[in-house]
Amino acid sequence: MLQGLVTSGGVAGALIGAAIVFRIADAIGRRRELIIAACLYIAGAALEVASGSFGTSETSGLALLLLGRIVYGAACGFAMHGAPAYIAEMSPASIRGTLISLKEAAIVLGICAGYGFGYAYSEVPGGWRWAYGWTAPFSVLLFVGAKSLPPSARWLALRGKQSEAVASLAFVYPNDVDARDAAAQELAAASEARSDAPPPRLGDRRYRRALTAGLGVVLLQQFTGQPSVLYYAGSIFESAGVGAVASVAVGVFKLVATLGAVATVDKYGRRKLLFIGISLMVVALVGLAIAFQGFDGEGGGFTPRKVAIIGLIFLYIAAYQISFGPIAWLLISELFPLEVRGQAVALAVQANFGGNMLVALLFPVARDALRQLVGADWAMSCLFATFAVIAVYALEFVRARVPETKGLSLEEIERHFAAGDRRTGIESPLIAADGGELVV
Fold first, then answer.
1. Beta strands in 164-292 (DSSP E)
2. In the predicted model, is pLDDT for residue 116 greater than 90?
3. Half-sphere exposure of 62 toward its Cβ, with a 13 Å CA cutoff?
4. Mean per-residue pLDDT for 291-314?
5. What is the DSSP string of 54-99?
6. Residue 106's pLDDT is what?
7. Dihedral through CA 154, CA 159, CA 160, CA 161, nearest 10?
8. Mean local confidence (pLDDT), 80-90
9. What kind and span of H or E run contains 282?
10. 126: which of 74, 192, 206, 293 is 20 to 30 A away, CA to CA?
């Protein structure tokens, strides 16, 4: 139970942070969100270190540990909102996908570092505290970096600070006056059009298609089994006696796969990578459904079936990291109109963490219920088959609901969604920066 509380404390904190951001995002701006996130990360790290230090009692130590997890989770809620929104609002359209995908790669790099610090301190009494403590200097770097950035140009335009928005664009286009002027003109035109529109409400019909596409991708990211597959990867590695080393290997493998998406997302587009990745996830999940039939752990060490399962898990991880992993966050930062982007991205962050928690909580319940219903030999197979069916639906969802946004400015995406279309939510075909028609 204690392990569950500690684990869920971070997710609960992230939900709290995202709920706060939902209310204040457009008032404080993306840059301040990152600064607040850095401060919360530092506070969370300090609480975690203090929880087992300075002669704290067991009760007070546990309270500090759980509080630290919640504070640290709240920092994640702020950062997961502020980072993709800021990058999207400041990036040139031609490299926006690469830069936002790099954000996901940086997260995976941090996971690898966490695995590394955890492994390094695994034999040190109370070493877990110092593994947390090492996050503090990186949080200070985040704080200093965020302080050195200008506010988002589009957020400034939303607040009616057009001259400051133009000055902010100079940070992105320091030597390209023409590109800076073109971006400024587009911001001004969008601001003028926005001033003539009715007051924005997130639930309005005009935002429905963007919300359906963005939230759908985020939820399907979780409901295709990502938390559960990784959970079983850990348990199988543990039973084979290579748990600690394998965790580091999984982190490195995720990083390499994510960098593949970083290198190709602005070349091939969001939809193509989603189609490729989700299709491979279907293959991996069907394979896991077959491999888990009658699987009971098979004792310690490696067996042919364990090797097959591990291979399929790595295929699933690679497929996820070139598709849902980076692209879900990329899409939610692109699809929502500026006037509701703060609330919409916050809602997507809540959906992400809430979906993760829901799958993690319901998976063992569903597994035990299926053991009673179909027997232990088939329970896991049925679960992975269910995830495979959801992944097949995800392919159809992407085909029908998710537009290709490669090479388009955020204002172009906003105009196309506002126009509406019976097939895809876009009135006319989206046009790439090179003039080619993008099929949606």
1. none
2. no
3. 6
4. 81
5. TT--HHHHHHHHHHHHHHHHHHHHHHHHHHHHHHHHHS-GGGHHHH
6. 92
7. -70
8. 93
9. helix 270-291
10. 74
Predicted confidence (pLDDT) at residue 289 exceeds the cutoff of 60: yes
Inform me whether the pLDDT recorded for 59 exceeds 90.
no
Tell the residue number behind the tokens 């911001």, with chain if given: 187
Torsion 134-140-141-142 (CA) sign: positive
Residues 6+ positions from 9 with CB-CB distance below 8 Å: 66, 69, 70, 73
Cβ pair 341, 84 in contact under 8 A: no
pLDDT of residue 196: 63
- Give the CATH class of 2-149+197-419: mainly alpha
Tokens of 393: 């639906």
CA–CA separation, 1 vs 165, rounded Å?
A: 50
Residue 168 contacts residue 89 (beta carbons within 8 Å): no
How far is Cα 397 from Cα 251, in angstroms, rounded to an integer?
Answer: 29
Backbone phi, psi, residue 437, to 5°: -75, 135
Q: Which residues, in sequence order, are bridge partners of residue 431?
A: 437
Give pLDDT, residue 297: 64
Q: Which residue has the tokens 């069907």?
A: 286
Domain chopping of the chain, boundaries: 2-149+197-419
pLDDT, the chain, mean: 85
Only one residue has tokens 């097959």, namely: 308
Does the pLDDT at position 353 exceed 60?
A: yes
Q: What pTM did the predictor assign?
A: 0.85
Q: 8-24: buried (b, 16+ CB within 10 Å) or exposed (e) per residue?
A: bbbbbbbbbbbebbbee
Within 8 A by CB and 6+ apart from 217, the residues are 274, 324, 327, 328, 331, 332, 397, 398, 402
Residue in this structure with the two tokens 């690898």, named with its chain if needed: 112
Mean pLDDT in residue range 374-385? 89
For residue 161, pLDDT over 60 is answered with: yes
Tokens of 39: 């401060």
